[in-house]
Amino acid sequence: MVIQERLQTKVSKTCDVLVCGGGFAGISAALAAARMGSRVVLLEREYMLGGLGTAGLITIYLPLCDGMGRQVSFGIAEELLRLSISMGWEAKYPENWLDSDDPAGRNENTKRFQVRYNAQLFAMLAEELLLKEGVEILYGTYAVSAARENDKIQAVIVENKSGRQAICAKSYVDATGDCDIAHFAGAPTANFKQGNILAAWYYFANETGYNLQPLGASDVPDSERASSKKQVKLLVDRRFTGLDGEEISQLVCLSHKATMADIQKKRMDNAAVMPVTLATIPQLRMTRKIVGEYELKESERHTHFADSVGMVSNWKKRGPVYEVPFGTLYNKTVKNLIVAGRCTSVDETMWDVMRVIPCCAVTGQAAGTAAAMTDDFNGLEIEKLQDELQKQGVILHESEL
Ligand SMILES: Cc1cc2nc3c(=O)[nH]c(=O)nc-3n(C[C@H](O)[C@H](O)[C@H](O)COP(=O)(O)OP(=O)(O)OC[C@H]3O[C@@H](n4cnc5c(N)ncnc54)[C@H](O)[C@@H]3O)c2cc1C
Question: Quick check: CB of 180 below 6 Å from ligand 1?
Fold first, then answer.
């Protein structure tokens, strides 16, 4: 059965740049666009910023360095890392990066430039920063559709307490993590083939304080499975696309069940153990991505890309450095749409590298800066974007390190 709806949707807001999704990618994009002088609206379906990195309780800011002693991700990626621990950190602290200028203390045997932070503090600090930079934040606002006219998005349709409305912008940043806006606008996208394993990261308290319990360790990509001796201990024998409402609800219930079982087990040894937070967004690593003008491959380590917009490292291995081509952030079929975060155009193995927080901040800064400069990403003069990013402190090429 189909219900025929007749909709006339009021335009409630206009702006220069509409950033959809307030995870690390969206925060970075909104910050970059606002600092370029754009009127920016950031919409977020939850009531806090940070996405998986706060509401999802994933509080490990993976490395900005290559593991061999060189920092490779700069700009907002570093600013957000420092912001995340500006009121204190959790667990290990990389003093060789944060308190020392001595390069000798940074090599293949020393700590990598990564931190653990408090989710709630970061969410409030990020909000404060964005408001200070003039970003308008719309919480509780779900993007549900996109109105497209020819090869441009005319409006993103949203729903919140005020009902259904349209927001019009010159350019749009899809930082939903799931590539929702690209999907709604009819840009080519691809789904994660392997499927997500169940994760159930939560915090518990005991006599010594509160502790992160990461249940459901990282997966081994299909491409590495045959050659890898690594075994993944699954919480449930099932995989999840993360793109179906019913399936996501089942995933959340299974995640709660795994948390409860773990808590009960811990409480048998120590009755003081209590859960203190549950994730309020589903812990999905990879779901849907844009099919961009370029697809970055994991094998393209140490490759020079003329259109690089920044660099990322590999959190799993010391050594690899990847320049991020601008072509991974857009598809020319929808001219005024750019993506950032865990839905950029990469191959399946690179996806597992590119989805993590520092990489999301790197692509967010590039996308937000570009969105402030143009409403036609295919026509953007890449050198001008690169000049801007360099002024913001981003290093574009490995040869410049
Ligand atoms: C179990 C697990 C462990 C991980 N471990 C680590 C780790 O140790 N370190 C690390 O750095 N990374 C880790 N990651 C990956 C990392 O947390 C995320 O990939 C990264 O935070 C993604 O950032 P993002 O901004 O691209 O997307 P998200 O954090 O997913 O943010 C997207 C935001 O958009 C909002 N949104 C989505 N759809 C809509 C819509 N239609 N309308 C409005 N708002 C919308 C969401 O509410 C969310 O706030 C892990 C991920 C998982 C699941």
Answer: yes
